[in-house]
């Protein structure tokens, strides 16, 4: 598969699809990690005398009121600071102003156009990979580089659409994602342990089905653990579970002894309560919101003997300090002799925000994309480039 290194970028208009889908509140960026992750590819293009045209989405655009709160203007300001150079921001996704600005660019210039999903307001042209829109965006450049791993599981006009027309390659971020994740999925060093959390079994079935035969242990926490525990016939009180997936969990538990479930729990009477208790047996009016100390000790045994670990999903409601001890304890279990892959989303946020980024080998920037990769699926935004 071609990368940005395989192209002569000098004097070329290089369209780079980046992932600047960052949390913004009242015009302030709350987490700029995705912007920072894009810098290596952008700087490479700048240093090789390209005219750099950046495309990204931000949030979802369903109605007119979504436009202002999802503008990329704050991102352009932060990117200018990180690059230490002015970023030209055009608050349009097409038209003469955008075309004129691109045609006036000098080598080394960087231009960021407005949120690609502004085009979703009229018939979801971006998200449905509208052919005319893909052709239009492709007409603005000479070379296309996809470096937005987080959207590579979607066939959009701004990735698959453009890549189907222009000479294309991947950037350093996608290259890093593939180089770190694919060997672990395809040929892990054993013992290989998968840690799964999050709220729903239904979100993780594809990953479980793909990895259960490859891993040695599957440690399950978070809300999804209680569907498994109920399938075993245990009392789970008012804890979250998915009734329609009880049969799936029961069959899986009967099929394999690799699954390790919580043996104690941090429970509360309701989500608003500031009081919680550790229990081995959940009462009928309890809600389980984190794994308990005995479970942490049990999970630690399997983690410490593992050479490869993939973790997707926190094991408790970690955004509340009362219920983050399980997730925080798992973060602290890893060591430098292990290959530890964090599969994006909330587990990535937890590792970074709790201060354990240096404990792991790789943190994926794409929640949905990393999940589909862990499921063994091909990602259309990358597949199209491999086929060129």
CATH topology description of the largest domain: Rossmann fold
Quickly count the helices.
16
The total domain count is: 2
Strands, count: 17
Gyration radius (Cα, Å) is 23 Å
Mean pLDDT: 95
Distance between the termini: 8 Å
- The CATH architecture of the largest domain: 3-Layer(aba) Sandwich
Largest sheet: 6 strands, parallel
By secondary-structure content and strand pairing, the structural class works out as alpha/beta
- Given as residue ranges, the uncertain stretches (5+ residues, pLDDT < 50) are none
CATH class of the largest domain: Alpha Beta
Helical proportion, percent range: 25-40%
CATH superfamily membership of the largest domain, which one? Phosphoglycerate kinase, N-terminal domain
Strand content: 15-25%
Strand order of the largest sheet: 5-6-4-1-7-8
Tags for this model:
388 residues, alpha/beta, Rossmann fold, 35% helix
């Amino acid at each position: 598969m071609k990368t940005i290194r395989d192209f002569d970028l000098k004097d070329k208009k290089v369209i780079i699809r980046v992932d600047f889908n960052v949390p913004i509140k009242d015009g302030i960026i709350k987490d700029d990690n995705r912007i920072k992750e894009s810098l290596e590819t952008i700087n490479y293009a700048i240093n090789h005398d390209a005219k750099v045209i950046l495309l990204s989405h931000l949030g979802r655009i369903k109605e007119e009121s979504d436009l202002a709160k999802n503008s990329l203007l704050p991102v352009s300001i932060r990117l200018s600071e990180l690059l230490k150079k002015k970023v030209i921001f055009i608050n349009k996704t097409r038209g003469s102003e955008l075309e004129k600005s691109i045609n006036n660019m000098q080598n080394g210039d960087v231009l960021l156009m407005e949120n690609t999903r502004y085009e979703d307001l009229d018939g979801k042209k971006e998200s449905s990979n509208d052919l005319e829109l893909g052709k239009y965006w492709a007409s603005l450049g000479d070379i296309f580089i996809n470096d937005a791993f987080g959207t590579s599981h979607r066939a959009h006009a701004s990735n698959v659409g453009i890549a189907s027309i222009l000479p294309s390659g991947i950037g350093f971020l996608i290259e890093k994602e593939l180089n770190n994740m694919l060997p672990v999925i395809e040929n892990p060093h054993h013992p290989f342990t998968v840690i799964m959390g999050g709220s729903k079994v239904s979100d993780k079935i594809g990953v479980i089905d793909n990895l259960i035969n490859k891993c040695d242990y599957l440690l399950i926490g978070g809300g999804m653990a209680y569907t498994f525990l109920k399938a075993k016939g245990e009392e789970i009180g008012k804890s979250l579970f998915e009734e329609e997936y009880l049969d799936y969990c029961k069959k899986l538990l009967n099929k394999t002894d690799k699954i390790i479930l919580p043996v104690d729990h941090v429970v509360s009477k309701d989500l608003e309560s500031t009081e919680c208790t550790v229990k081995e047996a959940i009462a009928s009016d309890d809600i389980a919101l984190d794994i308990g100390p005995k479970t942490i000790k049990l999970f630690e045994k399997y983690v410490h003997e593992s050479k490869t670990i993939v973790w997707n999903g926190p094991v408790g409601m970690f955004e509340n300090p009362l219920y983050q001890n399980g997730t925080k304890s798992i973060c602290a279990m890893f060591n430098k002799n292990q290959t530890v892959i964090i599969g994006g989303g909330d587990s990535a946020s937890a590792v970074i925000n709790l201060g354990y980024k240096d404990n792991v080998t790789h943190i994926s920037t794409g929640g949905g994309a990393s999940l589909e990769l862990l499921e063994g699926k091909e990602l259309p935004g990358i597949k199209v480039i491999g086929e060129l």
